[in-house]
What we know:
This protein has 20 helices and 6 strands. The protein is 54% helix and 8% strand.
Amino acid sequence: MKIGIYGGTFNPPHLGHLTSARFAMEALGLDKLLFMPAGTPPHKVLPEGSPTPEQRLRMMELAADSMLLPDRVEISDLELQREGKSFTSDTLRQLHEVFPDDELWFLMGTDMFLTLHKWHEPEVICSLAHLAAFARTEKDTGEMLEIQGKYLGETYGASCTVVQLPRIIPVSSTQLRELLRKGEGRQYLAPGVYGYVLRHGLYGTKADLKHLSDEDLKACSLSMVHAKRHAHILGVAGEAVRLAERWGADKEKAYRAGILHDCTKYLELEAQLAICQKYGVEIDELERKDAKLLHSKTGAAIARGEYGVDEEIYTAIFYHTTGRANMTLMEKIIYLADYIEPNRDFEGLETLRRLCYEDLDAGLEMGFAMSVADLKRRGVVIHANTQGALDWVREHRKGP
Ligand code: ATP
């Protein structure tokens, strides 16, 4: 197996790291890539007020997750766990013990590669791993890298490969920290990383979470879930806006409800129960055992408790999984947007989509009828609110 190791301080991890990592993986044919955040970088001092090691690790996880290659891209906390300076030679020794039969490839940008001979034990680094170097800016020429590669080869027996990146993102974490302090720079970060920065007030950002712009709210919400769910969340928000436009609801609120509706989707049951406890959310016996059912209630609690949404958005999120009798217009919109957003694909979807724009309650009836039938088929207990919603919408459509 060919394993790439991409070390760095990642304070914060940015698109320069991710883009170069992706291209290098392809160019070198790597089976795996390990991002390796440094605990105590030997060549840099972490600026005062830097995030904690755990926060750097979490940002790196979010950044790596945004590459959507979960089987090939991993994070290693080897250097964060190790005491003392994070020397690459020690890391490669450890990795070589774990992967004795695999090829290790150490990836680096120009700045690191050109100074490698000054690092601790360069001969060990060069004997344990192939080196792959790429440019960080347009000014870094391939020739410069070739010369250094030749020198490292002659001096330490290094095997060096220069990777030509088809696209260079000329940004550094230092520049980004400065930009973030001024409220700029989000375009250089994966959305989840930017949201995490805002939520934790890192790098001098002082976002008021209860009064975020749509863009910042989106980033915060996306930072709470796996990247594979992002398309669905954005799909629901977009669909909710279209339905709101069609049926005369508040588009802004529909967007925010859609953006936040799944924000607690990946929390473990324990964490969901803790949120219920904190915000005084009442739950029944069925919900107590089922994180899937709970996420709509905890999502609503977080939306209100952390992001300050109003009652209309709160209940739309609260009932987006089960529905209920006497649903408000916003509740119907979010329930149905979740059902028919553009990433969905199931039999009957086109009919349901058409109904949702012709006759909202007819769409609602079809949605609940399909849900109930599906739950029955799978032998899942039907929540009283869902049965209640179906009975209510049927009655309601019959009229007096
Ligand atoms: P700082 O500004 O704090 O020094 P940095 O942006 O250089 O940070 P590091 O985490 O120190 O980021 O870098 C880790 C690795 O990523 C290094 O090998 C570096 O050369 C490479 N790298 C950093 N930025 C880019 C970029 N924009 N394009 C390609 N490689 C990059």
